[in-house]
Amino acid sequence: MKIRSLLLLALLAVPTVIFAAGQDEPTIYVIKQGDTLWGLSERFIKDPNYWPNMWAKNGQVTNPHFIYPGQKVRIFPDRLEFIPKERTEAADVKKPAATTPAAAVAEAIQEVAAEKTYTLYGTEGFLVDKDFKPAGVVIGAQHDRIVTGIDDIVYTDIGSAQHAGGDKFSIFSRDVVVKHPINNEEMGYKLIPLGSLQLTDVEQKSSRAIITSSSKEITPGAYLLPYKESRRKEIALKNTRVDLKGYIIESQAGASILASGDIVYIDLGSSQGAEVGNMLYVVRDVTIDQQYVQGRIDKLPQELLGALVILDTGKKTSTALIVKSIDTIYKGDRIISQTK
Predict the structure, then answer these.
(1) Residue 321 and residue 329: Cα distance in Å, rounded?
(2) What is the domain extent for residue 143?
(3) Looking at 47-51, 307-311, 325-329, which range is the least confident one?
(4) Is residue 111 scored above 80 in pLDDT?
(5) Which H or E run contains 170?
(6) What would the pLDDT profile of 257-306 be if each residue is shown by its tens digit?
(7) Could you tell me the end-to-end alpha-carbon distance of the chain, in angstroms, rounded to an integer?
(8) Per-residue pLDDT tens over the stretch 140-159
(9) For residue 199, what pLDDT is reported?
């Protein structure tokens, strides 16, 4: 049965592998559920960037997103090699004596790594189209306050034609319009969760409300959307159904320099086939000074910068978490679903 290779996501703590002095024969490791090319490279030869080389040199691993339980790998101090199926007989495996350091290593590396999941907290925010209309807007606060928080009284433009006292709404700040870093296209507005409120008194075209929760300062002009409780949700990785190519177009914090742990927004949504749990790779084209090029070069290998996981999808954009950064990632960097 195929299992998902997280590739850039083997962030589990694992024991250090030590090769016995004078050990001529490689240690043989059997792939277990949850193992990844990234993890194998990082765990056994301390070079997490080795995995693309390992994949490229093994024709039996036809899809870099999949490795299989039962496959066997020879572990050398400086490289890893998949064992062809016809050579996976017991004679290939040299089992060290129980009293040797290699024996303890063999036992440790047989442990099954749990599949990695990621958490959606509901505070990540998202992008909406330019013509997006909220359910209502905070139009003012009691005593003309500019900044409000929990238990403060505010006023909204929500009337009795649509809602009644007791109805709850989530509060969002609407940031400036987000423009695509490559073609300058207006992608919409960034909405960041601020808290929630509950209507207390409703007139025909307006209402009074009390702020029931707040994570940030709430000011007049804040958007109101039908209430959705912010519950933690575990996101499991999911293979992409189609080939995805896009860009990082904005970050939650508005920063241009990004790293692991940052929330970002991408120009891929459900209309392009993006789904929650998809892992995408952050890449950058390599350019060189043409004066040193002898002959015709079509394309250089892409630089692999890291990976992100989609946490939430809209129609044209998605919210994602950068889960691995090998090098500095910038707003405007490319993202793809397949890498070689």
Answers:
(1) 13
(2) 126-226
(3) 47-51
(4) no
(5) strand 168-179
(6) 999 889 999 999 999 999 999 989 999 887 766 666 666 666 666 788 88
(7) 23
(8) 999 999 999 999 999 999 99
(9) 97
Helix, coil or strand: residue 24: coil
Taking CA 257 as the corner, what is the angle to CA 251 and CA 259, rounded to the nearest 5 degrees?
Answer: 80
Retrieve residue 23's tokens: 């050990």
Same domain as 103, residue 67: yes
Amino acid at 200: T
150: exposed, middle or buried (Cβ count in 10 Å: 0-12, 13-18, 19+): middle
Same-domain status, 87 and 134: no
Domain stops at, among 115, 148, 163: 115
DSSP characters over 171-227: EEEEEEEEE-TTT--EEEEEEEEEEEEEEEEE-SS-EEEEEEEESS-B-TT-EEEE-
Nearest to 262 by CA among 87, 151, 124, 57: 124
Tokens representing residue 319 in the block:
């919210």
Structural domain contains residue 271: yes
Cα 241 to Cα 270: distance, rounded to the nearest angstrom: 11
Residues in contact with 141: Cβ distance below 8 Å, sequence separation at least 6, in sequence order: 148, 152, 153, 154, 155, 220
Region class of 197: left (phi > 0), else alpha (psi between -120 and 50), else beta: beta
The amino acid occupying position 72 is K
Considering only CA atoms, give the Rg of the chain.
26
Q: Quick one: pLDDT band at residue 25, thresholds 50, 70, 90? A: confident
CATH of the domain at 179: 2.40.10
| Strand order through the sheet with 72-75 | 27-30, 72-75, 80-82
Nearest partner of 79 among 109, 100, 65, 58, judged by Cα: 58
pLDDT bin (cut points 50, 70, 90) of residue 233 is confident
The verdict on 130 and 219 lying in the same domain is yes
Q: Give the Cα separation of 125 and 264 in Å (integer).
A: 9
